[in-house]
Amino acid sequence: MAPASRGGRPRDSEQEGTKMTTSLATAFLFSLLIGVIAGLRAMTAPAALSWAARTGWLNVAPTSLAFLGYAFTPWILTLLALGELVTDQLPTTPSRKAPGPFGARIVSGALSGPAIGASRGSLLAGLIAGTLGAVIGTVGGHAFRARLASAFGRDRPAALIEDAIAIGGAFLIVAALR
What we know:
Strand content: under 5%
Distance between the termini: 34 Å
Number of strands: 0
Low-confidence stretches: none
Shape: globular
Number of helices: 6
Mean pLDDT: 90
Helix content: over 70%
Oligomer: single chain
Order of helices and strands: HHHHHH
Largest sheet: none
Number of domains: 1
């Protein structure tokens, strides 16, 4: 049992330690989840985080990721995300598991995770979790979409469902950061 101060309550240093542990766990979880979104759609995660940084929901100003909150960054990333949603529907688009697209998703997760981690005091935890999440999202998203496409008998409905999951998931993650 932890030593208590007068009144039977934990000492301030213990409360601070608990807050740090909770903050680190939260940073890891949300960084992992935004990494999964990056694995589904590489540009959706950074676009959502850029809007969060621009609107003040995510504080990345004191970090090297401050550019996410610059005036034009959310607009540029949003255009790239919209372009990705369109190109994903094209029959000539390579598999997300091909080296180029897989690498892009990992880079996106390695950028997005630390943005959340930095705002919670742990850039490294965010980097690890975001990268891991991107791998999970890429491989898991591919399998999920393949099963959906098989069930529908074609890919387009599965792709649209995956788009909705990526966009909705990114919004929910960003909203939870407020």
